[in-house]
Amino acid sequence: MLDVGDSQHIYWECCGNPNGRPVVYLHGGPGSGCTPQSRRYFDPGIYKVVLTDQRGCGRSRPHVEKKGDLEVNTTVHLVEDLERLREHLRIDRWTILGVSWGTTLGLAYAQTFPERVAAIVLACVTTTSRREVQWITHDIGCVFPEQWERFASLRSYDPNRPMDLVDGYAELVFSADAAACELAAREWCAWEDVHVSLVPGYAPNRRFEDPTFRLLFTRLVTHYWRHGAFLDEDQLIRNVSVLKDIPGVLLHGRYDVSSPLETAWRLHQAWQGSVLHVIDHAGHGGGIMTDRIVEAINRIGLAWRRP
Fold it and tell me: Where is 15: in which H helix or E strand?
């Protein structure tokens, strides 16, 4: 556990080769935390792997239990936590692997500390813009109309203000009524399962069966989404030129309707030297996407080992 201030302690672990190429894995969510499977992206003979649960979730402490806890949980805080962890581990530069929300956090960190980043691999690319949040919580209802009506029915909202739906859920999960909290978390996570379901071989996320996980996850996701990740709109795409000297690989599934390919394409167009791989039979993670992530990470690691 690393004390990062604000009464926050973040969980971290290292595995693989102690003398290998340093790489840090940034999990999705926000709020999902790492799992033992997170280690399996990396060849343990090549990489010194750093896994960390972002503040407020997973094995980090304290968890978010009241609204006030969110005041010290923003993208800036998470970026600073990563930098403190790098310094604590005495790593000069590391490779970043970010998946889903982890791509937003990875871009924000790399654009703040580009001199500390050796290479970047981003899979299921998001920038958590308000435009993307509106799509994933409102506009995508045209693809899943029946499920979206159930998702939206929990909270009355102004159809001219789609973000109002996110705000509504963000309030419900801190309701004094425990049953209302639980219902909101369950319906939010049911919707999360729906919009990733186009991936071949899809299966529901078993972590959503845990009511404690559901509630914490929903509190953090709605917090970040209602604030557009605490970033200016399109900030991560506008500022990506600072990464022009850093090798970047973007992996995105053709069937990913949660975060449509457009975002990865726009980022690739703005990021000189980046490579975009569109995976025709992949959605928002899982299946063949996992294989492609491993391949991309291995290519970077093998290039590092060459004399």
Answer: strand 12-16
Which residues are designated catalytic? 100, 256, 284
Contact by Cβ (8 Å): 31, 217: yes
Amino acid at 44: P
Cis bond upstream, residue 30 (ω within 30): yes
Among the listed residues 139, 230, 136, the one whose alpha carbon sits nearest the alpha carbon of residue 188 = 136
Is residue 108 within 8 Å of 236, Cβ to Cβ? Answer: yes
- Say how far apart CA 285 and CA 287 lie, in whole Å: 7
In the predicted structure, residue 307 carries a pLDDT above the cut 60: no
What does pTM read for this prediction? Answer: 0.95
Give me the domains of the chain, ranges plus CATH numbers.
2-128+230-305 (3.40.50.1820), 131-228 (no CATH)
Q: Which residues contact 246 (CB under 8 A, 6 or more apart)?
A: 110, 114, 117, 118, 119, 120, 273
Mean pLDDT of the chain: 94
In Å, what is the CA distance from 69 to each residue of 10, 63, 64, 201?
Answer: 14, 8, 6, 37
In the predicted model, is pLDDT for residue 198 greater than 70?
yes
Question: Do strands 2-5 and 8-10 pair parallel, antiparallel, or not at all (unpaired)?
Answer: antiparallel
Residue with tokens 């792997």: 49
- Give the model confidence (pLDDT) of 45-63 as tens digits: 999 999 999 999 999 999 9
